[in-house]
Amino acid sequence: MLPWKRVLRPLVALLLTAAVAVVPAAAASASDSAAPTSGWNDYSCKPSAAHPRPVVLVHGTLGNSVDNWLGLAPYLTSRGYCVYSLDYGQLPGVPLFHGLGPLDKSAEQLSAFVDKVLAATGAAEADLVGHSQGGMMPRYYLRFLGGAAKVGALVGLAPDNHGTDLDGLTNLLPYFPGAEDLLKATTPGLADQITGSAFLTKLNAGGDTVPGVRYTVIATRYDEVATPWRTQYLSGSDVRNVLLQDLCPLDLSEHLAIGLFDRIAFHEVANALDPAHATATTCASVFS
C-alpha cells in the first residue's frame, strides 16, 4: 500500500470521530429495534444440543448492534446458533455511532446484556464475538465483572487488545496542546484504546487472559486501525491467534472488512465457537 494511503485511512477515521463528537443533540435517532435483524435477537430462540451457548455479538467503535453484524449474524443463525447483539458506549445526542463511552462502563452494559440473554435462553454460558473494540472490551468484563463464570469463549475480530497507535498518528497528540484532554472529554472510548492508556494498563496487568475462557484472535496484516496488527494477539494457555493471510494469502481484508463481510474470517469464527467440529479454513471458505 502506498504510504499516503496508510496515513489517509486512519486520518479519515479520526475526522469521522471528530464529526460524530459534535453531532447536535437534536439529531434524529433511529430505534435500535426498528432495523431488520434477519433472525437474530430472537428472545424465543432456545439453544440446541449442538450449539448450547447463545452467541453475543459486540460491535466496534462507531458501530451499532445492527450495521456491524449484517454479514456475520445471518451467517451464524443459518448454522443453528441463537445470536444476539447489543448497543453500548452511547454518547448523549449521538445516534447510531456507538462505542464511544468509557470502556469500563461499556463492560457493565455488556454484563447486563449477557445476563439478559442467559435468562431468556436458559443457558448457563454464552460465547462472545467482538469486532475491534468489541473484541477487546469484553476482556474487562471477564476479568473484573465476573464474566468468566458466564462465558465459554471470546472471539476477537481485529481486536485492539494492547491498544492502537493508528499507524503512528496517536504519537502526534502531545504536539497539539489540549488534544489528549479533548479526546478524553468528548470521546473517552477512543482515549481508552490508545496504547498505554490507564484502561489498557489495568486490563493487561497480570496477564492477558483469565482461566476458564477460550480465546481466539483473528487478525489481518492489512489492518490500518488496530496497529501494529501483531499487538492484537493474546498470550495465555487457552489462546489461539490466527492471521487471515496464513489461511488464505489472497485475503486482502483490512480492519472493517474482517468484521463486516469476510466469509473466510466468518468460517474461522464458526470454528472457534465449535472447535470439536472445526473444518479447515481456506480461500474456498468464501463459498461456505
Give the gist of this structure.
The chain is built from eleven helices and six strands. The chain has 288 residues and is of the alpha/beta class.
Write a structural description:
The chain has 288 residues and is an alpha/beta fold. Helix content is 32%, strand content 11%. It has 11 helices and 6 strands. β1 (55-58), α2 (72-77) and β2 form a beta-alpha-beta unit. The longest helix has 19 residues, at 3-21. The two termini are 29 Å apart.
Categorize the overall geometry: globular
- How much of the sequence lies in strands comes to 5-15%
Number of strands: 6
**Structural class assignment:** alpha/beta
Series of secondary-structure elements, N-terminal to C-terminal: HEHEHEHHEHHHEEHHH
Distance between the termini: 29 Å
Number of helices: 11
Any low-confidence stretches, pLDDT <50, length ≥5? 1-36
Mean pLDDT: 88
Radius of gyration: 18 Å
List keywords for this structure.
288 residues; alpha/beta; 11 helices
Write the layout of secondary structure elements.
Layout: H1 3-21, E1 55-58, H2 72-77, E2 83-86, H3 103-121, E3 126-131, H4 133-136, H5 138-144, E4 151-157, H6 179-186, H7 188-191, H8 198-204, E5 214-219, E6 239-243, H9 244-247, H10 257-260, H11 263-273
Parallel strand pairs: 1-2, 1-3, 3-4, 4-5, 5-6
Helix pairs in contact: 3-5
